[in-house]
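New to this. Comment on this protein:
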Amino acid sequence: MFNMEIEVKSQNDDELVLIIRDAEIPFVNAIRRSAMMSVPKIAIEDVNIIRNDSSMFNEVLAHRLGLTPLVSSLKHVEGMALADECDCNDFCPKCGVAFSLNAVGPKEVYSKDLISSDSKIKPVYDTIPLVKLKEGEELKIEAVAKLGLGKDHAKWMPTTVCAYKQYPEITFNENVEIDYDCADACPRGILKGDRRSKKIKILDIEDCSMCKSCVRASVNNYINVGYQENNFIFKIETDGSMTPKEVLLKACDELGEKSDKFIKFSEGGNK
């Protein structure tokens, strides 16, 4: 057992950075995978292109529509079922949301031109370019957005970045002469050589990528770069369809349910 500590380093609508202490790699990686693969999100799945006079292939246009982020916060998708778990033949309000798009050129068609049958489920951003129509060209589309999981397709993945790294650790060998060249070699500028105080200052250790450029630049092994084995920097960025906090909490819930099922199975609950 471990006594894990979590500190919120920074947080906004699209990004969350955590410092996780006293944890283990399998546990942190399980949260990462759950956030990417097991958090339900709405994305356009079925596209019926009735008319497309543009120079863009139907397949490319359908792909763009599928990757257009739609509002998928839990309060907006509450009560909806995953597409493969709904008992309807095609789609229904329980598992899908209908979209339509009608445009005549000349104009630039943007995500805001997608009209939703549910005012709550709409594109996150209005200014995503979809296609450009020339004079007289027409575009008419019907589409259905469904609830899905990132493990089935990237369009259902709520995160654009979900990664962790072990917390960096930089130490100096006080038994040798200070090597200021190692500070100049840092590509991220997190080391600063201060000749007046005769020391090298660490400006932002959490920005260290552990590339060891400073170690290679030091001719007398003055600096050493490593990491704290059980401490991590965990970062989540989303496409705006959900907040990072919501993704993280839902990912932990999903991971907890899977753990409970595994415990029950191992204890013979399914016999």
Notes: Helices lie at 25-37, 58-66, 74-77, 181-184, 213-217, 244-266.
